Amino acid sequence: MVFAAFGFWRSVKVINQGDEALVQSWGRYKRTLSAGLNVVNPLTESVVYRETIREKVLDIPPQQCITRDNVSIAVDAVIYWRIVDMAKAFYKVENLRLAMVNLILTQVRAEMGKLELDETFTARSQINETLLQELDVSTDPWGVKVTRVELRDIVPSKAVQESMELQMSAERRKRAAILTSEGERESAVNSARGRAESQVLDAEARQKAAILDAEGQQKALILKAQAERQERVLKAQGTAEAMEIIANMLKADPSTREALQFLVAQSYIEMGQVVGSSDSSKVLFMDPRSLPATLEGMRSLVSDASKVED
Description:
Membrane topology: Single-pass membrane protein
Number of helices: 8
Protein name: Band 7 domain-containing protein
Main location: membrane
Helix content: 55-70%
Strand content: 15-25%
Keywords: Membrane, Transmembrane, Transmembrane helix
Domain Band: 10-168
Low-confidence stretches: none
């Protein structure tokens, strides 16, 4: 009874979820046990290896690498992987974890040696993708699937860091100088444009003012000429109407002729006074002794005009 219970206990194997186990028979691989309750022959079979098939993390310690431009850097990485074939992982390599670590270190050094220092900082995603592909192919014979590779830190040596800081400082000063000069240039250009636009606007304003002034003078001259013409027309009309009235009066009453002669003589004398009082007056020579003769002559002119009207 005791032996039977012991044999049953030895034949039953419980495999946890996410794990697998390898069974050997007479020193040779027999089969792989999956999760759950499994039964083996306790006399001829034995479980020699049990491992999880879940994804695992492999932390790669920092290692010194030399870039293509001969710069020493320290690189560390994290690898995510899992076993997809338990038999290969156990029988194809003696120490799977150690083999993977050495393989990853070799691949990382090889990839860093292909790049210059600046490229290692800017092409990190590309490096991760390249390492993933190469490691996946290399570990496939071991029954391992590499799912992700991440480079964590890329640290140059102290001397290189100091040189990089100096380079960055110089680059920042260079950019600052460039930005300052560009700002000054744009400011000068804007100022010149502003002055040019101001001069153009000022010239346009003067041109418009001159045109408006000329148009105003032209209109003023036209209005003045129209006013003078209208004035002359009105004076002519007034003179014509006055002559017509005088002619009618002479025709109606001949005795008004002497009164008219007196008015003409009076107007002649007043005209002489006006001419004498003006600033641009001319000298009118008139002999007082000949004034009666002059008046008589004017009167005769009026008499002739009245006869013509008759």
